[in-house]
Every structure is written in C-alpha cells, then in structure tokens.
Design goal:
Elements lengths: L6 H15 L4 E5 L1 E5 L27 H13 L4 E5 L8 H14 L3 E4 L2 H11 L3 H11 L3 E2 L9 H7 L6 H13 L3 E8 L5 H18 L2 E8 L6 H5 L10 H14 L5 E2 L3 H12 L6 E4 L6 H4 L8 H10 L3 E5 L5 E4 L1
Parallel strand pairs: 1-9, 1-10, 2-3, 3-4, 5-6, 6-7, 7-8
Antiparallel strand pairs: 10-11
Helix pairs in contact: 1-10, 3-5, 4-5, 4-7, 7-8, 10-11
C-alpha cells in the first residue's frame, strides 16, 4: 500500500474509516501555545535547527516572568493547554521541573501537556529515582499529559543516523507505557522524510499500534514531515537523504496511518509543516483533527518554515473543507462549536 497504492484510493479508504469513527462531520482543534523553556540540548540531533550547546550566546532558559507572561497571553486568547518542551539541559535537575509545574498550577487552571519521552528519561536518569517514580512526582506536581515528541522514526537503524545521542525506540516506548499505566494520556508522533525506508515507517506504525493494544493510552497520532533548512542533516549531507518530503508523500503517510492504526481514535493534520491548504486536503485523507492554534512555535520555525494561522483561520479552513469546526480540550472533549 505504501509503495504501490494509488494515492486517491488510499485517501478514499482512509476517509471512509474517518467517517466510520467520526460520523458527525466534526473536525476539532485545540487553542494552546508551545513553550520551549530552554533551547540547550546535549543530544544535538542532526535534524534539529533549534538546539544550542551549553554556553552558546543564543542559548537561554526562560525566566519565571517570561513563562507566566506566555501563559497569561494563552489564557487571554481562550487557550486551555500549554505544551511545554525543551532540550536536555545538563544543569537542570528534577527539582527545577517540579518547581515549574507547581508554580504553574498554583497560578493557573490550565492543562500542562509537557516533557517528551527523551526529556522524562533524562530527568529520571539524572535524579536516580527511576522512571515510574519520576513520572509519579511530575504528575503530582502538575503534569497532566505527555506529548509524543522525540519519536521521529521508531527504528533504531534510522535513529543511529539522525539522532545517535537520543534515547532509542525501546526507551521512548517504555516512557509512554509507564505513563499510560500510571493513568496518563499521551499523543504519538512520527517525523518522516529524513533517511527512513518504507519498512521503517511501517515499523513505527506497528510499534505504536502494539503499545496501544496493551494500554489504550494514546489519544491521537500526528505524522509530520522533516523540515531540512538550517539543520546539520541538510548542511552536512547524508547519502540516504533524498530531499524534502512532498505534500503527496505527506498525504500518503497520513492516509496509511489512519488505515493501519485501527486502535488510535484521532489522526491530526499538520498545518504547521504543510500549510492550511494541504491540511484541508488531509481532512479527506483520514485526519479528523486540525491540531493546535499554536500561538507560539519555535522548533519548526528554526528550520525555515513559519506558517502562522489564527483561530479564525482554522475555523474557516475547517468550514470551507465541508466540516463542522469545534474547539476541544487535551482529551478531545468538545468545548464549543463554531
């Protein structure tokens, strides 16, 4: 299906599955903000243009005042969630994260969707508390759910090439399984278009589906394409890198994701990497969610792609594609229709 399936037939099949799972014609979105608390990261992934080394003149850690200002603006604009992610900063310990979460929760009634599996693994390793205890402490301090960042492709052959210092696929899955068993919901992602093969993409989808069969903890799957500008992978080259994935590549993988992941309830379109028009088409290739308004986004922007849309743009795009727009929360509960 991936290699030889007709694109429009794949899209039609994925669209039928979307209709069966979401027969009311509603397409959801969430109002939130991506907050990157630091850009310092020791992983130095070859696909990333955002990270900075410790001591770099452009490195930063957000102050409490800056963090609160960003959350204030998010709530003013109707936001119900903040997505907090950063790099693996060697000077930040478990207490830093616990204090950040407590201070947010003391001040705001907002869902904290935060810390990707690589961050959580690193925090646990540095603290010596173990993974389950670290997740318990983060949850008690105010962490509500976990984003699927750091997955890229869950094939260690690929990870060795594009992110050799990052945790392997087994550890990523272990963090997610532990979080699910603790009662937390998470999302799953896939970044494709680097050096992976068709087999690697299927391996990624298969491992997500297998874990979902065991735990049921994933609320959504979000595939998106590698943005190469300003990245070491683009600059240094790699014989396996064939150039940026196209919109056709994106729609093919999106449709296949909806067909294959029969146990994941929601598939999210990526206007952040594809733009509004392709995201509208994605709604007929299996997607039933338009993602986030993303009042702020820095990681993809650092790679030279900066689509900016308002809540009204998203509402209009969903409506013009023939669907009923609805704002949701982190757990896909509908808050209001438009």
């Amino acid at each position: 299906m991936y290699r030889q399936g007709d694109l429009l037939q794949l899209g039609e099949r994925a669209d039928r599955i979307r209709q069966e799972r979401h027969p009311d014609g509603i397409v959801t979105f969430v109002v939130d903000r991506n907050i990157n608390y630091t850009n310092v990261c020791i992983n130095r992934c070859r696909f990333c243009a955002f990270y900075r080394n410790p001591g770099d003149p452009e490195s930063y850690i957000l102050s409490k005042e800056e963090l609160f200002s960003k959350i204030d603006e998010t709530i003013e604009k109707g936001g119900t969630q903040i997505l907090i992610q950063g790099g693996l900063h060697p000077e930040l310990d478990l207490e830093y994260y616990l204090r950040m979460l407590r201070e947010i929760k003391e001040r705001y009634d907002i869902n904290v969707h935060g810390f990707s599996p690589p961050e959580i693994w690193y925090i646990a390793e540095k603290s010596g508390n173990g993974l389950s205890e670290t997740i318990r402490l983060l949850r008690e301090a105010g962490l509500d759910s976990i984003p699927g960042g750091g997955a890229e492709i869950l094939s260690d052959r690929v990870r060795e090439k594009i992110s050799p210092r990052k945790i392997d696929s087994g550890k990523w899955l272990e963090v997610m399984e532990e979080a699910h068993r603790a009662g937390m919901k998470t999302t799953a992602t896939m970044m494709f278009g680097t050096v992976e093969s068709a087999e690697d993409i299927i391996e990624h989808l298969h491992t997500i589906r297998e874990l979902q069969d065991r735990t049921g903890g994933f609320t959504a799957f979000i595939p998106w394409t590698f943005q190469p500008e300003n990245t070491p992978l683009m600059r240094d080259g790699d014989e396996g890198f064939r150039g940026p994935a196209t919109a056709v590549d994106y729609l093919r993988v999106l449709a296949l994701s909806r067909i294959y992941l029969d146990n994941v309830p929601n598939i999210q379109a990526s206007w952040v990497t594809q733009g509004l028009k392709v995201a509208q088409v994605a709604l007929r290739f299996g997607a039933n969610d338009f993602g986030s308004t993303m009042l702020e986004e820095n990681v993809v922007k650092a790679a030279g792609v900066s689509y900016r849309v308002s809540k009204e743009d998203i509402i209009n795009a969903i409506g013009l594609a023939g669907f009923r727009p609805a704002q949701r929360d982190t757990y896909y509960n509908i808050l209001r229709f438009f």
